[in-house]
């Protein structure tokens, strides 16, 4: 394998959407009708190996992320893959701090989602080139090499490179034992599938039964649209699952701070483990106030699925504003930045329970959480990975959950390579399934709207 033919010669990006809004899959108090979607990056090398990465979106607007990825593509095309990996932190900074593009963020919003998709594709490529699943690539790196992928700018007041290396070194001796345990049992999961906001009571009951039978002991339900509906729904769920199971609720950012405290207090009789995203995802002090008010009730605050970057996470962790840190594999600027959040969370004693409600998120976060268990925290205690049973069938190597535990991924890469037929059917708007749905009047064809506008 010569380095020359490991040049990245092409970046393709696709807008892939699934019509989940038709049956309210994925719905919550804020996102009442999401079409689970993603901007999907394919990096091609001269040797033929491809890297695949994605960032999750809720439907409309994916074309904007796709555009942003095109605008960043010149930074990666023409580069030699192993040269990037040799100084991955440097490359990460070059893409997240590009002198003109950074004005669109910096390190937040569309431009950071775009960087995340490219960076995720690079990690997938690296793992595939070394023929390892991503978690194993991370676990096998020596501490210095792993830490060399992280850009520590803005976080050295909480964690330095040297401290990060020391954290990893402290866990080295137990690695093999933990890998064996992980391989035998897997990593515990909780399900959100029972509780999407648009589901009927009958569907909720049916799904509670299904996931109990599958061995799940932790459930999450959407709340926040109407207090009485929340009470009725939580009664229904508690009756179905009993009080010995863990129950979490997720408001997806709908409340003001005081309102969140009052609302959740009224739901506390249902023995809630955490309240997720009670208020604006940017309101660190608001989350701290909510955490303080709910602590006596035994309810923690979980957040992070739309937390913009490592700096925001740093402050959430410093301010005791999150008791459960929900990293999202497609929200931050890819694996490099997420590693820094895990290390800060470990240092500040906060449990990471990744967010996975979205396309390909279960597939990705399992790798990160497994690395955390083996190399960082050394424990699964009090930690769970979200499991949402949607769109797995579209991936070449989908997540496999057995006895309510994620089983270790075995295939090389980061697990988000789509099947070719998925692209053929769900690329938006030209995929065959979208053409069918437009012709049946289930969705408006955006091309017709544009045509009408141009001829008006
Ligand atoms: C729009 C998404 O489905 C969101 O509701 C997911 C989420 O909040 C979660 O999984 O948690
Ligand atoms: Mg959530």
From TrEMBL:
Keywords: Lyase, Magnesium, Metal-binding
UniProt family annotation: Belongs to the mandelate racemase/muconate lactonizing enzyme family. ENOSF1 subfamily.
PANTHER family (UniProt xref): ENOLASE SUPERFAMILY, MANDELATE RACEMASE (PTHR13794), MITOCHONDRIAL ENOLASE SUPERFAMILY MEMBER 1 (PTHR13794:SF58)
InterPro entries in UniProt: Enolase-like_C_sf, Enolase-like_N, Enolase_C-like, L-fuconate_dehydratase, Mandel_Rmase/mucon_lact_enz_CS, Mandelate_racemase_C, Mandelate_racemase_N_dom, RHMD-like
Entry's Gene Ontology molecular function annotations: L-fuconate dehydratase activity; magnesium ion binding
Magnesium among keywords: yes
Enzyme class, broadest EC rank: lyase
Organism: Photinus pyralis
Protein name: Mitochondrial enolase superfamily member 1
Co-factor(s): Mg(2+)
EC number: 4.2.1.68
Lineage: Eukaryota, Metazoa, Ecdysozoa, Arthropoda, Hexapoda
Residue intervals of the Mandelate racemase/muconate lactonizing enzyme C-terminal domain: 201-297
Reaction catalysed by this enzyme: L-fuconate = 2-dehydro-3-deoxy-L-fuconate + H2O
GO annotation (BP), single: amino acid catabolic process
């Amino acid at each position: 394998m010569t380095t020359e033919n490991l040049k990245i010669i092409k970046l393709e990006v696709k807008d892939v959407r699934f019509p989940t809004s038709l049956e309210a899959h994925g719905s919550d108090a804020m996102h009442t009708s999401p079409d689970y979607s993603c901007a999907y990056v394919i990096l091609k090398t001269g040797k033929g190996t491809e890297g695949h990465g994605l960032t999750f979106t809720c439907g409309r607007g994916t074309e904007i992320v796709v555009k942003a990825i095109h605008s960043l593509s010149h930074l990666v095309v023409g580069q030699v893959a192993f040269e990037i990996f040799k100084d991955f932190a440097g490359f990460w900074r070059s893409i997240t701090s590009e002198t003109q593009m950074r004005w669109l963020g910096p390190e937040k919003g569309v431009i950071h989602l775009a960087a995340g998709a490219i960076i995720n594709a690079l990690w997938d490529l690296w793992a595939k080139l070394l023929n390892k699943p991503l978690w194993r690539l991370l676990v096998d790196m020596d501490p210095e090499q792993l830490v060399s992928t992280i850009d520590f700018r803005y976080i050295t007041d909480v964690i330095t490179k040297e401290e990060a290396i020391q954290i990893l070194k402290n866990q080295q001796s137990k690695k093999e034992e933990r890998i064996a345990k992980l391989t035998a049992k897997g990593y515990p999961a909780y399900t959100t599938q029972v509780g999407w906001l648009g589901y009927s009571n009958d569907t909720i009951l049916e799904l509670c039964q299904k996931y109990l039978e599958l061995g799940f002991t932790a459930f999450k339900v959407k709340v926040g649209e109407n207090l009485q509906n929340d009470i009725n729904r939580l009664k229904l769920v508690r009756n179905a699952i009993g009080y010995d199971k863990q129950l979490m609720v997720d408001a997806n950012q709908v409340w003001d701070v005081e309102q969140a405290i009052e609302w959740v207090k009224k739901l506390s009789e249902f023995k809630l483990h955490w309240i997720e995203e009670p208020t604006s995802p940017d309101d660190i002090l608001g989350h701290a106030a909510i955490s303080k008010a709910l602590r006596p009730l035994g309810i923690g605050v979980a957040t992070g699925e739309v937390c913009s970057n490592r700096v925001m996470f740093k402050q959430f962790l410093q301010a005791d504003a999150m008791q459960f840190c929900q990293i999202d594999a497609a929200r931050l600027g890819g694996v490099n930045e997420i590693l820094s959040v895990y290390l800060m969370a470990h240092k500040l004693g906060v449990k990471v329970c990744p967010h996975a409600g979205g396309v390909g998120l279960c597939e990705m976060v399992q790798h990160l959480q497994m690395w955390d268990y083996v190399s960082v925290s050394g424990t699964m205690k009090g930690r769970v990975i979200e499991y949402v049973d949607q769109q797995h069938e579209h991936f070449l190597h989908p997540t496999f959950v057995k006895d309510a535990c994620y089983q270790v991924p075995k295939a090389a890469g980061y697990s988000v390579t789509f099947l070719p037929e998925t692209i053929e059917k769900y690329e938006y708007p030209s995929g065959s399934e979208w053409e069918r749905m437009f012709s049946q009047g289930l969705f408006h064809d955006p091309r017709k709207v544009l045509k009408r506008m141009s001829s008006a």
